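Example complex used in Figure S2.
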Amino acid sequence: MSSTEQGTSSAAPAEPTTAPESAAAPEVPESFYYVHGKDKVVHKVSAGALQHSALIHGMISNLGYTEEQAKANPFPFENIDGDILQMVVDWCNQHKGKPTPPEDTNLPKQKEKLFDLVLAVNYLEIKELLTYCCKQVAMMVKGKSPEEIREIWMIPTDAEDEAAEKEAKKRAGKEAAGETAAAAGDAK
Amino acid sequence: MPIRLLSLSVKDIRYALQCMDICDLIALSLCSKRTKNLVKCSNRKVDRTFIYLDENYIRFEICETIFHEDDESISFYLFDRWVELDSGDREESDSEESDSGERTQKKTVEKRRTFDSWRKEEFTQGDWIAHFLSIFNESMAYALEINDISLPYLDTVKQFIPKCQTLRISPICADNVAKIAFRELSPIIKEVEIEKNIFDDKTDISQFLTSDLRSLSLVDFENPFKVTLDDLLAINITDLSIEPANITVKELNQFVRLTLSEEIKQNRQEAFKGIKYQTVNECLLVRGDGKELLVSISVKSVVFEFRV
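Predicted assembly (496 residues):
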C-alpha cells in the first residue's frame, strides 16, 4: 500500500495565529487521519481539513485515535476513484479552517471528472464543494441550445424514456413471474 | 465530456438548476417531458411576461427581476414548429488563470445566441406560449400588446391567447381591429391601455366605459377623446384615465356634483347638500356623510379620486 501526504505537515500548526507568542495558548498538536479510495493510495489529511466532510467528521469525532491507530486504520472509500479522492483531499486541505467564498476560483476545474466528483462530494457530504460542483455543472450548458444540452447532459428523448419505461415494466413483470414460479416450485 | 445529469441526486439537480439562467432553463425544458417537469419543479419565478402580436409573428418576452447584475429580459419570436431567440448582447465576467498561477477576473463581451432558432416540430405558436407559462408556473401573461394585425389573424390567435392582466392596443393597430380585440378579449383581461383614439362617435366610447374592467387608460395626445356627462355617469371601471379628455367645464362640474350623491336620479338637490369645498393646489370635496372626492388639477389633467 503506497502512501502520499497531501499538503499538510505534522510539524505545522493547525491554524496560523497572529497573537503575540507570549500570550498564545499552548498549541494542541493537530491530529491526522488517513483515507483511501478505489486505488488504495492512502492520503494523510488533517482533522481540520476533514471537517469539510460531514460524513468523515461524523466518523472521526468520537474515535480518539492515536496517530498510529489512525495510520493503521485508513478510512476506505472504495466507491471513489483515486484521482477523484485526490481532488477532494486537495480541496479540503486548501480550505482548511476557512469558509468557502461563494465564487471560489481555487477549485478543481476538471470537467471531464465533474460527474464523478459530484457523486463523491455528495457521498462525503462536503456542502461547499458540492455547491461549487453543481454550479460547474450548470455552467456546462450556458448559452447552449436544447439539442446541445441533450448531448452534454445525455438526456434521453421522450421516445427513449418511454421505451426504457416499457422495458423496466417488462423486466419487473418477468421478475415477478419468476418469483411466483419459484414460490410454486418451493411449495411442490 | 458529457455527464448524465439525470443520474445525479435530486438535490444536486435542483441546485444545478438554481444556478442556471432563464434562457438555459427554457432550453433544458424543451429537451423532454422529464426535463420540462424538472424545470417546472425548480419553481423558478419570472417577473413579467409579455406577448406582442404582429401579423407575421408573435413575440414572447420574459423579464426576470434578479437582485444582482444579471437582470434578464429575453424575447422569443414564435412560429409554428420553431422559435427564434433574441437574447441580445450580453456582458459576462469570467475568470482566467494568469502565468503566475493567480486567477484574475476578466470581462468579456459575449454575443450569445442572438437569433438562435430552436425547433420543436409538434409545437404551434399556442404550444410555445403554453409551454413558457407552464414551466414558470404562470397561469396568465402580464400584458398582451396588439400591433398591426388583420382581423382574420386576430380570429386565429385569440383561440390560444392565455389570460392576460393587461391588453395594450398600440397606435399602429387599426381602429376596427382594436374595437373587436377589446370586445373579444375583454373576458380574459383585467386592464386595458389604448394608445390611440379609435372612437368615431359617442356610442363607441360609452361601450368601453361601461365594461367591467379594473382599469382603462385612453391616451392620444393628438386626438383628444370626446366624452360627455352621460359617458362619465355610465362608468363602471375602478381606475379610468383619459388623456386628454374633451369635455365641457359645465359637464365636468355636473359630473362632480352628481357623483357625490348616492341617489342621483331620485334627489339631485341632495347631492349639493353639505358639500364643503377647499382649495389648495388640489380640491377636496366632502359630502354631508363624510365621503370625500379628491380633485387634483394640473396644467393638462384633472384627476378625480373617489375615497371610500
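Confidence is low (pLDDT under 50) at residues 1-22 of chain A. Residues 158-187 of chain A form the longest helix (30 residues).
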